[in-house]
Amino acid sequence: MAADWMYAIEVLAADGSPLAPSEIEKKLHAIVVDVESRRARGECAVPISVLTTDDRDRWADVRLISDSVRECSHSFVS
How confident is the model at residue 73 (pLDDT cuts 50, 70, 90)? Predict the structure, then answer.
């Protein structure tokens, strides 16, 4: 995770061997460049990814609350 955006990188080659540290560093640098360009364009990540670290049942409860709040807010706009 970088600046509330989630990223995944491959650290293993096709044959299952670990990539060289320099290759992993290039991939990490590409993430930094992406975050910087997003911020320069004024993008803001929704910091919901932190919820995935919580217990699955708790996350489900939070989602139900979030959905109900969203439904209520639509009724005010309509």
Answer: low
